[in-house]
Amino acid sequence: MKIATYNINGINRRLPNLLGWLEQAAPDVVCLQELKAPPTQFPAQALRDAGYEAVWQGQRSWNGVAILSRGVLPVCTRRALPGDEADREARYIEAAVQGVLVACLYLPNGNPQPGPKFDAKLAWFRRLNAHARTLLEAAVPAVLAGDFNVVPEPQDIYPTRSWDRDALVQPESRAAFAGLLAQGWVDALRRKHPTGPLFTFWDYKRNRWARDAGLRLDHILLSPELAPRLSAAGVDRAARGAEGASDHAPAWVTLRRVARRA
Q: What is the pTM of this model?
């Protein structure tokens, strides 16, 4: 079973890129972020024609998340992160897909920091950590996948001082991500590739793609029930180099399927 996360940065604008990658990579489940489209403009039929059913939570111009499943309709269980009734941003969706509970998230960027936007980022992170703990307590095979907007460690960013004041690398952001791992979630890409860069994002500015000046912002965390099934993980860097590409590349894991009982 192959599960991927992909910040598509505008699903309708990048639809040819997405469809091309789906055909080439053939993931079973995909978590998408930054749809940048209201619910009525989600390209469900084009994805269905490509073999994927979907559930989504859209928002005009900003945010937006979706879960795609090849050949099977995901069973949506949540359309918002619990803990704040006033939160109307489309940043979280959760669904049961082929025996796995999949949570797709787009965490706030938090810039500029310090300030209200950074405070909101940390508050959202606290809500995520609280909900993630409830998923662990339920002892179900679960995945947290998406654009966490955090660079967990120095090795997850190219050598530079230019991002030092950015919300993505602040100690509070890194501590919140580390808190998820302390709960028992497994960083799947780092489990398979403990050292070295695993960049998933290259800003459009300052020739950063050509210079490989990347950051690792997109993560796939596995619950203890699912982690033993991890067989491979990686980043499809080539997608970032395609014409009209998102500034992110897809990250993915493959999981061994559970043998069916006779």
A: 0.97
Tell me the pLDDT tens digit for each residue of 1-58.
999 999 999 999 999 999 999 999 999 999 999 999 999 999 999 999 999 999 999 9
Q: What's the half-sphere exposure (Cβ side, CA atoms, 13 Å) at 160?
A: 16
Q: CATH number of the domain at 2-255, please?
A: 3.60.10.10
Q: Which residues of 11-37 are buried (b: 16+ CB within 10 A; e: fewer)?
A: beebbebbbebbeebebbbbbbbbbbb
Domain residue spans in the chain? Answer: 2-255
